[in-house]
Amino acid sequence: MEAWFSLLVGIFFTVAVYLLLSKSIIRVLLGVAILGNAVNLLIFTGGRLTRGVPPVIPAGEDALTGPAANALPQALILTAIVISFSFFAFLLVLAWRAYEELQTDNTDEMRVAEPKDDPAPPLGY
Question: How far is CA 114 from the centre of its chain?
Fold first, then answer.
């Protein structure tokens, strides 16, 4: 099962990088969302996918007797979901405001700070 999840993580990372290299802001936003999901799935896969008992030490014992669920990756994923959602919401509002102001979602056409008639800066110093 972990091999399938590892393959799925690789596919998610590939799709995310492809979308992040796009010139459309909407595709870049989708790439950020897929990249967040890929990282979450990577952490989840790294924490083992076995079904174990809760990590609670029974009374009278000093250690766990069998395999137990690892709670740390689950806690990290919950935190990462909240952070990635808020980051995605911020980027969505930023993209919407840029589209309202510039009337385009193409990143090449968004270069309003770069004058078109000026010569290019020197390549080396």
Answer: 30
